Amino acid sequence: MPPVKKEVRSKRARPLAFVKNLRGVKNWKEASAWLEWRGIEDIECITPDQAGVARGKMMPSSKFTSNTSLALPSAVFMATISGGYPEDGNGFVYPEDDGDLKLVPDLSTLTVVPWEDDPTAAVICDLVHQDGRTVEFTPRNVLKNVVAAYDRIGLRPVVAPEIEFYLVHKNPDPDYPLTPPVGRSGRAIGGGAGYSIAGVNEFDELIDDIYHFSESQGLEIDTLIHEEGAGQLEINLRHGDPVELADQVFMFKRTIREAALKHNIYATFMAKPIQGQPGSAMHIHQSIIEKKTGRNIFTGEDGSETEAFFHFIGGMQQHVPNALVMLAPYVNSYRRLTQAASAPVNNKWGYDNRTTAFRVPRSDPAARRVENRIPSSDANPYLALAASLACGLIGLSSRLQAEPPVVNTANEDEIDLPRGLLEAVDLFEQDEELAAILGKTFATTYAAIKRAEFETFMEVISPWEREYLLLNV
């Protein structure tokens, strides 16, 4: 196992009180006062699509507070990452109801947009049908449905995401490989700088902007570190409610990209952006709380692991491979999931073992948790959290048994996960228990999108093909 590395908490990290800015507005009266006090002129009404991309509408704040009806076409949630739509041989595949969907602002997410020149705010919206029914296949609703499934049996999930990303030179031509940026030293950033403060300081002004933008929006960064890759950083968030944390990851991705553009570089959440460098993950720490008592169900009265703890891991082991397409959603994601990379390619678990898919970090008994190390940073945070928690819920409900923990290096064995996108989609479509929790309409929609994206990828001729096939075959 690799040595345990010391995480360095930034001096700029702020107390949890800042999070209250994001979750403070409760009704339209408070929203109007909030907007007026800040002199907000425009509102971005946004919602994540299946890829986690912000979709929505912008309007003057006066129109936003006048009970204006907002709508988006349902086809927005059938679009592939390249902007196309899946086909089934009989034309486009849309959800059953192809009409407009109503945007319903979640006022508790109202926040400023600090990178805009004019005073601007943003609010995350949910989607409902015209008659008020919840839309099953939109990502935020999928996660809400999984959280509700826990609530029905008296449980409350708690999560803490960790998001890795790369800073790279601007690359307007996609035919050219990405390269690490130049830091304040004037030299290109090299790899092998895990937990290096000097590596972080290379981008001190950019990181200052990330913190400034984050504080302005009520987003809290727990720690920020330099990872192993050249120009690769990681941001860790405080633990909390899954929907709130997914909202924060959604907003953080926008924030980091905007801060990077201000410094004339790109921030990318691709799973494997640079050949020969480590991939980027979105690790998810998970624990489950009994609502009546506030007790962590993974820990018994004597401080030892409970049966529920092992059942949760059992569900992860049996069903995460079937849910992989939600955790590794693109062809590029599977370049990270190789034995040559640092990512886990198994479905094993272990105590403080970073080579396993499911790691149980060292902690006090009350804070016992399971870290899912498989998701990549390109995953939609709402869908990654929904998939991971759904697998654990199946384990709890069906009392699935976990395999014994692994104490040695787990990544040297055969790969236990699907090796590519189509194989992952096949497994996803076969898991009826998973579809029942996530919603069958969502499962069908999502699988169709992923198959269409693969077909689009197959239209592209890669440099490898030109290098080895052009003059040799």
Describe the structure in your own words.
The protein has one domain: Glutamine synthetase/guanido kinase, catalytic domain (Creatine Kinase, Chain A, domain 2, 2-Layer Sandwich), CATH 3.30.590.10. The protein has 473 residues and is α+β, with helices and mostly antiparallel strands. 32% of the residues lie in helices and 17% in strands. It is built from 14 helices and 14 strands. Strands 7, 8, 9, 10, 11, 12, 13 and 14 form an eight-stranded mixed sheet that branches. Residues 1-22 have low confidence and may be disordered.
Query: What's the total count of β strands?
Result: 14
Structural category is alpha+beta
Q: What is the CATH C level class, in words?
A: Alpha Beta
Order of helical and strand elements:
HEEHEEEEHEHHEEHEEHHHEEEHHHHH
Main pleated-sheet profile: 8 strands, mixed
Give the % helix. 25-40%
Which percent band covers the strand fraction?
Answer: 15-25%
Q: Note the total helix count.
A: 14
Tell me the distance between the termini. 43 Å
The CATH superfamily bears the name Glutamine synthetase/guanido kinase, catalytic domain
Mean pLDDT: 89
Architecture per CATH nomenclature, i.e. the level-2 architecture: 2-Layer Sandwich
In short:
By secondary structure, the chain is an alpha+beta fold. It has helices at residues 28-38, 61-64, 139-152, 197-201, 204-217, 242-262, 307-319, 324-327, 333-336, 381-398, 421-430, 432-438, 440-458, 463-468, and strands spanning 42-48, 54-60, 71-73, 100-105, 111-112, 120-128, 155-169, 223-226, 232-236, 265-268, 282-290, 349-351, 358-360, 370-372.
